[in-house]
Structure formats: structure tokens, C-alpha cells
Input
Amino acid sequence: MSIHIIATGGTIDKVHNPITESLDFEDQTHIPDILRQCGVSDVKHDLLMLKDSLDMTDDDRAIIYDHILKQSSDKIVITHGTSTMPDTAQYLHAKGINDKVIVLTGSMRPFSLLKSDAEFNFGGAVIAAQSLPPGVYIVMNGTIFNAENVKKNVEKGRFESHEKT
Output
């Protein structure tokens, strides 16, 4: 399979903190748990950062980009927060990586909570990484989006295609 998974944070990796009643990061990613639960074993994964995507900067995106370039795999799945996922996808697309399939995914509800969309989106991203031609994509809500024409519709709680103006 030769897929490399890079965790960068986002809701997918948050847990409920009963003391503060907030969603927080622990010191690790849930990716190993998701892989185990889905029965996926022939992948490499690492934790690059644990950031809420609202705190993601272009400096962070540059770190993600540099990390992608260091990977021998030509199939990359990045877990990312949904708020600025399109921004990161467009940033990576603008860098012109044309020899790798890069798929960003995440969840609207943490993996650690019931009824999360994390496994569904993650599974879709793993399949997409094996099937798509080189480029940058987002997989959310059972749909594959090209990096250059995707947005998050906050009111509907889903991702949609849009044409750039």
C-alpha cells in the first residue's frame, strides 16, 4: 500500500476534557487507534503537530510541505482540522507538488466521541490516496474535492465545491 499518514491535529485528534468541558489535545494522535479499528496495517504514520486549524499559519503549512517532500511514499494522507483545511490544501497545491497524491481529511466530531465521522472520512482518504492521480485533494463527507475548488460550508457543516472567482 505504501501510504504515509501525517497527523497535524484538528478535531479528529481532540478529546473531551470533563474538567473544562472543552475539546483538547492529548500528547498523541488517534491515528494508530483508527488504523487498528479499521484493520489497516500496511501504512507508515507520524505525528507532525497537534494544532487546531484555526491556529494554523503559513509557517505551519511550510512545515507540512517540507515534511511531505521528505517522504519516500508518493501517497500521503494528512489529518487536519476542518476550519482551514481548504487553505492548507490550496497552499500545498500552489507549491506544485506533481509527483505525489496528497489527500487531506479530518472530522467534524472527534474520533474519541460516539458518532464521529472520523473513520468514514479517514477510510475515504486512504482509498482516494491509492486511486487518484498526483495532486492535492480533500476527502470529506464521502466526496473527493480538488484543492483549488473546495470550501467548508459552516452553516451546513459540510464541504462543498466552489468555483474560484
